[in-house]
Amino acid sequence: MKALFLSFAISLALSWPPIARAGDVEWDTDIYPKRNIFPSFLIGTARVDLPEELFASWGDNHIGDPQGVIGISLSGVDAGSKVEVVVMGNDYMSESRIVEKLEEPAEDLVIHPKISFKYGALAKVSQAVPLDITIGLKVDGRSMGEKTVTTTLRPINDCLFGVEETADEGEEPTVSDYSWLFAAYVNENHPWVDRILKEALDTGLIESFDGYQSGETDTVLLQIFAIWNVMQRHGLKYSDITTTAAVDKGVYSQHVRLFDEAVTAAQANCVDGSVLLAAILRKIGLRPSLVLIPGHMFLAVDLDDESTIGIETTMMGARDLRPAKGGSRKLKNLEDHNNEESWDSFEAAVNSGMETLEKNQEKIDSDDLDYQIIDIAKAREMGILPITYSKKE
């Protein structure tokens, strides 16, 4: 009997899964990028699985949400162990968890649960604020404690466009490119877009917005000008405000005004003006793109399947047509004094945009991340959502 009992005990020892000891387990919170939370990124990518060339890959040593930004790093857990990670709920996310049985030993393993975000609350974040995130860990049912990390919750206006990734010793850091996120600020569904289009029709410069249906590039160009004209009547001026309140080394972002903010403030930097005009053009069925070159953005739009023009949107403020705003008289032709001035500025903006586009076309066609065209239609096909309009309280 003694020998039989010993044999049974050995069998149990061989078959029973290892139990992690608290002293062996090492773990810490992992918030990407560099303890920053960007609502614009979370909303813009809520329903899309981004390809690896657009989203920094966590590599093979990762489990959970492949686009996860809130999780843990873990070491000292044997293969076969069951790991449970819980992210506690707060004003911007519901409690979320992941439970996984490890197929390989955990050494520098990164785990990201799929977080249930409260997107409506995120869309209303208007300034950078600290946000405490608490995460708990269990291994084989045994609690390894909870940890709280203070992150920076960025305002909805902060657009993440690059992250300098940590490099191994002796290697140069790489930069993950997120500039495609600017497409999320092109909100063709914003309720103010229809208001702008109605004002453009009221000028009498065009009878309708039919996109490409006419088949005439001159007609397409006139539709673009009618919108340009109305934005000038709103007194839209160039503003070089691009800085963000929160700054972290290696995390690159830019302040971008939402559609109604730019119109209400009558101010727009190169990005604000480009995403604003792109939203209206997309609404009427045209194909706009955002063009990025170092330190600047302007707009490109297809006139047909073969021709594209560039538009230097910062020149929208070259003429102030506000004195003509509110008149009941329809402005039927370009001979109207204000329309002449508006057309001159529009023509100059197209000439400038075309010159910049042609000058940088070779680099835009290359793999240089500083020179890019963000096709809004393709961004929508990929699933990049416009940032939700949130009525100011």
What's this entry about, in short?
The protein is α+β, with helices and mostly antiparallel strands and 393 residues long. It is built from 9 helices and 20 strands.
Secondary-structure blueprint of this entry?
Blueprint: H1 2-15, E1 26-31, E2 36-37, H2 39-44, E3 62-64, E4 70-75, E5 82-87, E6 93-94, E7 96-101, E8 109-112, E9 116-117, H3 119-123, E10 129-139, E11 142-153, E12 158-164, E13 175-177, H4 191-202, H5 217-233, E14 237-238, E15 251-255, H6 259-265, E16 267-268, H7 270-283, E17 288-293, E18 296-302, E19 308-311, H8 337-364, E20 372-375, H9 376-382
Parallel strand pairs: 2-11, 3-8, 14-16
Antiparallel strand pairs: 1-4, 4-8, 5-7, 5-10, 6-9, 10-11, 12-13, 12-15, 17-18, 17-20, 18-19
Helix pairs in contact: 4-5, 5-8
Describe this protein's structure.
This protein is α+β, with helices and mostly antiparallel strands. It folds into two domains: 23-156, Immunoglobulin-like (Sandwich); 185-382, no CATH class. The chain has nine helices and 20 strands. It has helices at 2-15, 39-44, 119-123, 191-202, 217-233, 259-265, 270-283, 337-364, 376-382; strands at 26-31, 36-37, 62-64, 70-75, 82-87, 93-94, 96-101, 109-112, 116-117, 129-139, 142-153, 158-164, 175-177, 237-238, 251-255, 267-268, 288-293, 296-302, 308-311, 372-375. Strands 2-11-10-5-7 form a five-stranded mixed β-sheet. Strands 1-4-8-3 form a four-stranded mixed β-sheet, with no helix packed on it. It has a four-stranded antiparallel β-sheet with strand order 19-18-17-20. The longest helix is centred in the C-terminal third of the chain and has 28 residues, at 337-364. Residues 1-17 and 323-335 have low confidence and may be disordered.
